[in-house]
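step: validate -> pass
step: tokenize input -> pass
step: predict -> running
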Amino acid sequence: MSEMSVQHGGARSSFRVLNAADTADAAAWLRLWEQWPGREVHAHPGYASLFSNEHTDAFCACLSSRGGTVLFPFLLRAVPDELTAGKAPAGLHDITTPYGYGGAFCWGPESADLAAEFWAAFDSWGRTRQVVSEFIRFSLRPEIVLPYPGTVEVRQDNIVRGLDLSPDDLWMDFQHKVRKNVRKAERSGVEVIADPEGSRFEDFFRIYEATMDRRHADAAHCFSRSFFENIHENLAGQYIYFHASHEGKVISTELVLVSAETVYSFLGGTMSEYFELRPNDLLKYRVMLWSIDHGLRDYVLGGGYSPNDGTFRYKRAFAPSGSRPFRVGMRVLQPDAYLQLLSTTAAECAIPGYFPAYRRREHVIEL
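step: predict -> pass
step: emit ->
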């Protein structure tokens, strides 16, 4: 653990950077997370750890002060030697956030100086780790994250189904085709079960793998069996499976992540030979009813693969007025090192808009 005391306006604040791989740090991180009324699953140490590997470590920068509390989960990645090519210093790192929605989450009094205080302390720590650049995928609720000192861009919209209404009003707020599809699934005998323990995980994994194969998903979006086993072990109470079955066979399935106020559609799929029964429409409807029963405020369905594509329009049918901007943040913290790394990247491998640009060659190779 890295810890420092920050003096501001006569009051002292405690700034720490916790490593999820360290047992004591992970426990301290979890205790802070449990004190947060929002308890966003994407800030849980068990979630961030899902994305660590031999080149990537999961950390959380924490600030506790009279002005509020901050939790910033992030991934610290070593810049590969092949990207430095002898033109940039050794030991460089960059930062990204875990898959999903993140940022510097904050709660408490939230003084006007909290953001400046946190980012100054964080950048000081970053210099000790030779952090070149930073890329953040932000929460869809900007009010729960600190203002960002770098460049912020809207990439595309995501769909959020608000749940602060009655089941009858929810039903009437769907587009007509959703109601039609739900009725068809019910008439066809499709049933939906909630599975908080993952007792039918094998059915989920079979359908998930088949769906990824059908979509020709790249390796970055194809998660292994061990990935899900880690969810079961480290995120108890923060996930639930929903399965749609027909004549006793699971034909559509979804893994949902659960925060204190929000549920997130995470991963899943549907057997293509059962598309005509519209099982996924019924499944999503039942997720919403379950969420309302459990006092949750939002169901995040996510976005499409490109703006306004078929996947996005399908999700929007459940929440016609539920579009929210998905924002990302970018910073270059060591401009000279960034330019040196960029000079080693082949121009023909350029991916428009990809950040950090020096990793674009690595990205192409992974595809």
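step: describe -> The radius of gyration is 22 Å.
step: cleanup -> pass
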